[in-house]
What does this fold into?
Amino acid sequence: MHIIGYKFCAIYTKERIAVIISPKCISELRINYSHFSPKERMVADYIISHPEDVLTCSIQQLAKKIGVSQYSILNCVREIGYHGYSDFRMTLAVGTQQMPFSGENEKEDASEDALDDETENRRLFRQVFEQNARCIFDTSYLIKPEDFNEVIDRIFLAKRTSIYGVGTSGYAANYLCIQLIRLGMHAVSVTEAEYQLLDAATLINADLLLGFSSSGNAQTIVEAFKFAKQRGCYTVAITASASSPLSQAADLTLLTTCSGPPNHARDTNNSIIEQISVATAISTAVCDELERGRKRTV
It folds into this structure.
């Protein structure tokens, strides 16, 4: 898999054709994945892994390939705002184009037999990396530049930046905190749920609170956000659910995709790949501002 430009994603197939998929439809499936029924998740998993089939299959053919009814496909695409399968298919096709492989890729993908001879582990290895790359790419498409810039400005304005996360999201919180401290920013990370409300009680209107939660349902972080807002602290949620309690409680939301489906179906709320990427983007932007001479306000 190769990323081309900013708004297109190339997937190389055995037919030696690169299908460049607009991320809009795929990212909408990822964002809403946790709200789908089991059958709808089967549809989403298949479309995310085989977007080219949507371009070549009727709804009857696609339903047969997935092993679900046509109604499951209709319900899935309607859940994310499309009138029907044709509407979804047209939106995908509008952002899709085909191009032949360049010569530099021929050596790597020269033999279909070599692909067929790959071990199961090798195929899973490729699948995981391709999916993670798609998730990161889709997240870059979802986050509005003005919202990202607002977060950077708030970091420079803040007297202190508190960063919360629990579970795997705690890794992203700790990572961002370490990067900001190395850049000379006053930041703390709180990844123990029982201490988040205590920390929020110390925040003031000159501070900034960032919260990582894939599902947006982390109760202690949601309550801490509400408490911090009452004290005048500006709050930013980094979550994969725009309708989650955390997103609703925050002043600003940076929306990520969810890298759970289809490889991590047992943990569908896992967005650590996207969260670390967002944290890296934030710290990199702060570093760039510092190198250009910007100073902390407080």
Notes: The longest helix spans residues 120-142.
